[in-house]
Amino acid sequence: MKITLKAALAIGAVLALPAGAMAGEIAVIVKTTNSNFWQNVNKGASAAIEGTGHTLTFDGPAAESAVADEVNLVDNAVNRGVAGMVLAPSDPEALVPAVKRANEAGIPVAIIDSALGKDGEGTYQTFLSTDNCAAGKLAADKMIELTGGEGKLAVMSYVAGVGSEIGRVGCFVEQIKANSKMEIVGPYYSQSQMATALNQTTDVLAANPDLKGIFGANEPTAVGMGRALQQSGKAGQVAAIGFDGNEDLQAFVRDGVLNGTLVQGSFQMGELGVKAVVDLIAGKTVEAQIDTGVVYVTKENLDSAEAKNVLY
């Protein structure tokens, strides 16, 4: 895939390094390395670095909730003078000072997946992500179709306040409230821990025997949710939609535990993020915002080319 180079950036000053600038390290720092989603980002980044003359490092905290650890990883990258950075901020505000330091050091930064806080505007050059609000609305529309728009609906979320969560879950809830008569239970926050999501979902199912629908808003949360549905004997009885597309979630869709799952272009985030940084290092400009897309995967299209392009 190729980034279309268009107008000057809408955010941040372009870092006008000369074409053919000295090759160096491009640091890819994500929310956690303990997730297939982020490992798929790594695969995309590794594919993009080939033939560029640059080297690639990939790192992240042990858990998405370890925000201070991610801040330290960014600071360390700045201190060792990386040529560029691709960053998925686990907290929109906490990462702002670190990204500002990168900008002051002349390091081009591509933000992926979750937006940086408003105070960070102008300190990075491009933002690559799923349109999380549109994805949340799509999930809500599919849930309304499955349930008829009535009954209790549980929302199983991940980390409160993260940029992707605000858009994805916030717009899901808004769309449900605006277009259905469903009663929302939650949201519950798993801190992106599968075991926590499993326990939370088990409790929700026990406390709400009349539950009509349930939404798991990211990979570990949706996996925990699916396992809870299986263990409780509620699989297939409650309309269930997940988010992301690892092997567990694909199996849940194939087996009818989930009616569907929305899958982001995680490979594309890594691939296009690195390509953007390489272009910036060469003194080129890239689009201020790049949509990496989402696909609603069901049993019917699970084996299609469109689905296989995003599943991992």
Automatic annotation (TrEMBL):
GO molecular function terms listed in the Swiss-Prot or TrEMBL record: carbohydrate binding
One CC-aspect GO term: cell envelope
Organism superkingdom: Bacteria
Subcellular location: Cell envelope
Coiled-coil residue spans: none
Signal peptide (UniProt feature, chain positions): 1-23
InterPro entries: Peripla_BP_I, SBP_2_dom
All copies of domain Periplasmic binding protein, residue ranges: 26-284
Keywords of the record: Signal
Entry's family note: Belongs to the bacterial solute-binding protein 2 family.
PANTHER family: D-ALLOSE-BINDING PERIPLASMIC PROTEIN-RELATED
UniProt name for this protein: LacI family transcriptional regulator
